[in-house]
Design goal:
By secondary structure, the chain is mainly beta. The protein is built from 7 helices and 41 strands. The strands form 11 sheets. Strands 6, 7, 8, 9 and 10 form a 5-stranded antiparallel sheet that branches. Strands 36-37-38-39-40 form a 5-stranded antiparallel sheet, with no helix packed on it. A 4-stranded antiparallel sheet has the order 1-31-30-29, with no helix packed on it. A hairpin with a 7-residue loop joins strand 12 and strand 13.
């Protein structure tokens, strides 16, 4: 590769890194300054892997499924400090010994609670891995103990097809009218994915081989509708066999079944007859798809539709770093693909092609299918994949975030000082961080990055109490409660309005949380759309306190690498609208150059001059091209002067 080609490659990589690095990060990086205030936390010796939450029907108790344990936490006073009950349900010594004889390690031979539902007013239904022997049991809510038989033995049930054999496999389950709908791995090796219906009085149903062996389930939802048209949706990722590529391609799917499915009379006996699946697309313009779904949250919107917010990661890492995307899907659009879309069929050459023939009546996937709909049953055994991909709202992700892997999502509908509705996403990461992002139009902006855990640990569960404004966070060592609002970090009118946080507004004296019950909001100032302090801050209020957004000089950091771009962990960006930078992992061959004023840099130069109270920084590359960076209000607006470049990733910090 000649020098000119190398320069162009370097410029392309720097352009890509710049786009990622400046992508919608929070203006306030609160965890660098001080830890996020925690309302309450639950931590008990021996209680780990708090991965499953369920709120009691009276909303007074939070049940937590953990390793070998189920805990009941009191939420009556909106705090979880008080433990109401605990059940220890570990495998017996004999069961553990059998597990070890199968070649499993001690950690594999425990009981991870993976299904936890409130069956009725008197009992919980729980299922766990039980040392590679999926098992279910009942908990009596009055005594808060596992139910036993007349001889005092635990009343256990086979959990195969309901919960996985090991904690390494994901699963999902949902209880509807006393019936349990579950998706999991059905075998010891984890190569037989299955969707089942158990409990209740209806026929037990399961899928045929309609999903690939690597299918990974992440969520299931049900939106109540007419009794004869209720549907359950399952979300998962799997290898796409319909693509004839040399490399394995993973896609995200949504599958749908009907609640009134009774199975077949001749064909598909005790099998789903309404199963269909389609591909979910979450692809930023000009980039590779984010094809591995991680979690989904459903929120009914005004107008009758339900919006599904889903987090995705790409199939492959960029170097050693993940990135994530959030896409929103209309449930009505999903149903339209299932109800009116074209099917695929497998040809004689093992390729999946669009099906051009006649579709039987009743249509496959419809809830009007009966046990005697033999033509439909025969057709759907080979035609269960939809040809059309389901596109997100706006045909693009709401948010694309580098250097992070989102594991959980929940969404809160809030109203700003003028009564306008906004949707705020809380995104849990695999490092114990939560991003709070507000959706404006078809785009989301991270307004706060919250570091909750001293040691990195994945966020396992998120449960929002919308009325109370409290978020419950499950992690490896316990449960935390935090407020959705953190207005105290904004010390001036400028900071408060520029934060663009729907929960916070300036009342003339301080940045105040907008109370849900507060109807008098006339004196509260916000600008969620643009974060412009000038529309709500008087000259005196904005100048009375020297804002962090008005540094006397700037520091320019140019980060160059041919592998990937990340940032030092002690770097912040402060000031209205500026975006903070995430922690860096130093890559092999990475160079970090710190320059002040007009210091020189290898094969380039830096100049700084004042013009109408603005700072102009020029980075000039060895190829003769350069980039002008205008720091208006100490935020970077990139204005590329020439096409060919030797760009750097540039950030400012007040000094």
């Amino acid at each position: 590769m000649n020098p000119k080609q190398s320069l162009r490659l370097f410029g392309f990589l720097l352009t890509f890194a710049t786009a990622l690095a400046t992508d919608l990060m929070p203006r306030q990086d609160s965890q660098i300054r001080k830890p996020r205030p925690i309302i309450a936390q639950y931590h008990q010796k021996g209680v780990t892997d708090c991965a499953t939450f369920v709120l009691s029907t009276d909303r007074k108790t939070l049940y937590v499924g953990a390793r070998d344990t189920v805990v009941a936490l009191d939420t009556a006073r909106a705090k979880i400090n008080n433990q109401k009950g605990m059940v220890r349900w570990a495998p017996t010594r004999e069961i553990k010994d059998v597990c070890k004889l199968k070649g499993k390690q001690e950690m594999d031979c425990l009981n991870f609670i993976r299904v936890l539902v409130q069956l009725n007013d008197t009992h919980l239904y729980i299922c766990g891995t039980y040392a590679f022997k999926p098992t279910c049991a009942y908990i009596d809510l009055q005594t808060f103990a596992v139910v036993t038989d007349a001889d005092g033995n635990l009343r256990l049930q086979d959990g195969k097809g309901v919960t996985p054999y090991t904690n390494k496999y994901k699963n999902t389950a949902i209880l509807i009218d006393g019936e349990l709908y579950a998706a999991t791995k059905n075998d010891f090796q984890g190569i037989d994915p299955i969707i089942t219906r158990t409990l209740g009085s209806k026929t037990i149903l399961k899928t045929e081989q309609w999903m690939e062996s690597d299918a990974t389930f992440v969520a299931s939802i049900n939106i109540p509708t007419a009794p004869d048209d209720q549907k359950i949706y399952f979300f998962f990722s799997e290898t796409a066999k319909e693509f004839n590529y040399l490399e394995k391609v993973v896609v995200s799917r949504v599958a749908r079944v009907c609640k009134n499915d009774a199975g077949g009379e001749k064909l598909l006996q005790k099998k789903w007859t309404t199963f269909v699946k389609a591909t979910l697309s979450c692809t930023p313009e000009g980039q590779l798809p984010y094809s591995v779904i991680q979690h989904v949250f459903a929120l009914p919107h005004h107008g009758g539709d339900t919006v599904l917010y889903a987090v995705f990661t790409p199939q492959w890492k960029m170097g050693d770093l993940w990135s994530s995307a959030v896409c929103a899907f209309s449930l009505a659009a999903i149903n339209k693909v299932f109800d009116d879309g074209q099917f695929k069929e497998q040809s004689s050459f093992s390729q999946w092609m669009p099906y051009e023939g006649e579709v039987p009546d009743p249509r496959p996937g419809s809830c009007s299918i009966t046990p005697t709909s033999h033509n439909t049953h025969s057709f759907m055994r080979q035609h269960y994949v939809m040809n059309e991909k389901i596109q997100p709202i706006g045909n693009r992700p709401l948010l694309v975030q580098p250097n992070v892997k989102y594991t959980q999502i929940t969404v809160h509908e809030v109203h700003n000082s003028l009564g306008r509705t906004y949707y705020v996403m809380f995104l849990g990461t695999d490092q114990g961080i939560i991003h709070k992002a507000v959706i404006v139009g078809n785009e989301a902006y991270i307004v706060e990055e919250i570091l909750l855990l001293v040691r990195p640990d994945a966020i396992r569960s998120l449960l929002l109490f919308p009325e109370e404004g409290i978020l419950h966070v499950g992690h490896g060592k316990g449960v935390l409660q935090i407020s959705v609002a953190n207005c105290g970090i904004h010390k001036s009118c400028t900071d408060c309005i520029a934060a663009r946080d729907p929960y916070c507004a300036w009342n003339g004296r301080r940045c105040k949380e907008i109370q849900i019950s507060n109807t008098n909001r006339d004196n509260l100032k916000q600008d969620i759309e643009g974060g412009r302090p000038e529309i709500g801050c008087s000259r005196s209020s904005s100048s009375s306190r020297r804002s962090r957004a008005s540094p006397s000089s700037i520091t320019v950091v140019v980060v160059m690498t041919l592998v990937f771009f990340s940032f030092p962990d002690n770097l912040k960006m402060e000031g209205p609208g500026c975006r903070s930078l995430s922690k860096a992992n130093k890559a092999s061959g990475q160079e970090k150059l710190l320059l002040r004023d007009s210091q020189s840099l290898p094969q380039g130069s830096l100049c700084q001059e004042a013009a109408n109270s603005s700072k102009i920084c020029c980075v000039k590359g060895g190829g003769g091209s350069f980039q002008n960076i205008l720091a208006k209000n100490n935020c970077l607006d990139f204005d590329l002067a020439y096409g060919e470049d030797s760009r750097g990733v540039v950030a400012v910090e007040g000094i």
